[in-house]
Amino acid sequence: MFTQVKLPYAFDALEPYIDTLTMETHYGKHHATYTANFNKAAEMAGVQDKDVIEILSNLECVADPAVRTALRNNGGGFYNHNLYFSQLSPNPANQPTGKLAEKIDSTFGSFDNLKAELTRLASGQFGSGWAWLSANKNGDLMISASPNQDNPISEKTGYIPILAIDVWEHAYYLKYKNLRADYLKNLFNVIDWNIVSENYNAIVK
After folding, report:
1. How confident is the model at residue 205 (pLDDT cuts 50, 70, 90)?
2. How far apart are CA 46 and CA 40, in angstroms?
3. For the chain, which domains are there?
4. Which residues make Cβ contacts (< 8 Å) with residue 121, sequence separation at least 6?
5. Which of 111, 117, 150, 168 could share a disulfide with 128, CB 3.0–4.6 Å?
């Protein structure tokens, strides 16, 4: 059975950047629903014993189009939110270090440039979706944006996300209303780059 990532912080721990009610609703309702529906769809497809990355990488193997869509939407929602919530911290490392820091500098010019590009993609994503920093096994980095609950895995890019920026309105609307840019600016105050670096190191062979 697929389960939500266990939060190592309380719902109010990310205040004032992410408010308690948003955390309760986002994690406790939206993410919980994606997880429950993903488990149902995985059982229908007979893939409940497979890894979520494997499932999202092979959606075309599911014959029933309705089940395939349910896996894409709810499996994406499950995976994306697990990554999103796991990278947040009330006491984050505000900059990457080690191999990831070096690769960011060589790829984007600087850490500030990376943040600016991620913000641009997240701000420009029309409607609901995500912005990503992803890596491949060679250690290359890529930034991208995806609609709905898609991600670089289901999009078959060959990259795995190491940082997720949620721009569905349920991620910020209770506090920021329609001011997505304010949410994005403040989100960087609670992203733990030590965790992002660990995600990167786990992918690079």
Report:
1. confident
2. 10
3. 20-86 (1.10.287.990), 98-203 (3.55.40.20)
4. 131, 143, 144, 145
5. 168
